[in-house]
């Protein structure tokens, strides 16, 4: 019975006749059982999270430089007061971070109007090549990314999410930094931009594609020829624990009973559920199970879902489900943050099914590591400022830059000018 409950990487099934006799109203009376499972460090899954923030920050900077018409930028255009969107520690200078990876960011100096040498950065040939490869992969998989964004909006009550909320998830969804310019305008028949009551700009789904309203848990059951279980709502989650994780008998009994409860699809109305019941909690687990499946690497920082409570119709303290279900979700505390990882998606520290964008990111991580190690071994020499002044064209570019411009650029929030631009895109 124990291996059925835990799953150990296989789908847990609890096909009890007793469950089929339980009516919906009876199940609604199930109150949340006060069971608290301990958090156990999982070094293997921690490896899957290590370095994620640095990879993301470096890719955002790479994308910013690549998007500039001149293919190069002065350091002050990369470290304005909104540098926090990079996710780097406040005490770490952006220039210091970039210099750690000289095989990605090539530094040179251009004198400003007063003759003072200013650090500029451009991309190395290796970085440019990888960026072009990423663009190609995204273009080849646009339908997949379209479905991901649609399904994300379908998880909400009215098919609408603030841009800022989606922006927090764009890396996890595999979207490029400029997706509002390069992606959203291509689907004016699918999305529209709307202004919320609090004056924020949001993305709205114009229609409800029924073919997408199927959760990953339901899809897996259908593939395993368990259609009857889908119809009756008798679906359970795959559960597994790391070595050394011990479950008390009370916890085992609760987990088995909880898995038998009805599964409510995250794409169906849940307003009839009592938030104080285990049935409702199973729905909440299902929402996050589906949300993590929409991410390309089946993980996201816990803070990224903090603004999803109302749009996803979740109760207060909804992220407690991560602690109550450590066999489904693992909370990694690496990188000075908390990252929620979907256990079933990993075999060791590697994804079971790798998305093409994940392959690009793996290459990028290897490139970063290679540059860091080579730099630490002294294989890269610092440029001499006197010999690094570029041609007159770069000097002309330098003269057009200003501190005022550096406050905006790609790291600005969606404020008045930007929201006007977004509305214009989707007209």
From TrEMBL:
Region (Disordered): 391-413
Start and end residues of each PORR domain: 40-371
Protein name: PORR domain-containing protein
Domain of life: Eukaryota
InterPro entries: PORR_domain, PORR_fam
Organism: Deinandra increscens subsp. villosa
Molecular function per GO: RNA binding
Pfam family, one: PORR
């Amino acid at each position: 019975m124990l291996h059925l409950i835990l799953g150990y990487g296989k789908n847990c099934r609890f096909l009890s006749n007793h469950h089929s006799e339980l009516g919906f109203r009876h199940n609604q009376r199930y109150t949340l059982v006060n069971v608290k499972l301990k958090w156990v460090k999982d070094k293997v899954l921690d490896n899957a999270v290590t370095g994620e923030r640095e990879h993301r920050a470096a890719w955002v900077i790479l994308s910013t430089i690549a998007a500039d018409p001149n293919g190069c930028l002065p350091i002050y255009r990369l470290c304005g007061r909104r540098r926090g969107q990079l996710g780097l520690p406040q005490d770490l200078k952006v220039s210091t971070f970039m210099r750690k990876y000289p095989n990605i960011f090539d530094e040179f100096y251009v004198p400003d109007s007063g003759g003072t040498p200013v650090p500029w950065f451009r991309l190395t040939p290796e970085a440019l090549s990888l960026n072009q490869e990423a663009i190609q992969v995204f273009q080849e998989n646009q339908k997949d990314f379209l479905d991901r964004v649609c399904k994300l909006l379908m998880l909400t009550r009215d098919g609408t999410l603030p841009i800022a909320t989606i922006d927090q998830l764009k890396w996890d969804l595999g979207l490029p930094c400029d997706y509002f310019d390069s992606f959203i305008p291509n689907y004016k028949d699918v999305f529209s931009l709307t202004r919320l009551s609090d004056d924020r700009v949001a993305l709205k789904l114009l229609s409800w594609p029924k073919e997408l309203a199927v959760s990953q848990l339901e899809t897996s059951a259908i593939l395993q020829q368990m259609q009857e279980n889908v119809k009756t709502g008798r679906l359970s989650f795959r559960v597994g624990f790391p070595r050394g994780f011990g479950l008390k008998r009370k916890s085992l009994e609760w987990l088995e009973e909880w898995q038998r409860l009805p599964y409510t699809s995250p794409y169906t109305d849940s307003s009839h559920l009592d938030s104080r019941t285990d049935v409702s909690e199973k729905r909440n687990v299902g929402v996050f199970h589906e949300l993590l499946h929409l991410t390309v690497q089946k993980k996201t920082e816990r803070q990224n879902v903090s603004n999803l409570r109302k749009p996803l119709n979740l109760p207060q303290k909804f992220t407690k489900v991560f602690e109550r279900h450590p066999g489904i979700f693992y909370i990694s505390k690496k990188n000075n943050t908390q990252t929620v990882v979907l256990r079933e998606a990993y075999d060791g520290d590697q994804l079971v099914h790798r998305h093409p964008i994940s392959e690009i990111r793996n290459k990028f991580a290897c490139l970063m590591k290679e540059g860091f190690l080579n730099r630490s071994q002294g294989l890269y020499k610092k440029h001499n400022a006197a010999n690094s002044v570029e041609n007159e064209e770069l000097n002309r570019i330098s003269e057009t830059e200003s501190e005022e411009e550096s406050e905006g650029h790609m790291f600005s929030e969606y404020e008045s000018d930007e929201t006007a631009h977004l509305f214009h895109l989707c007209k």
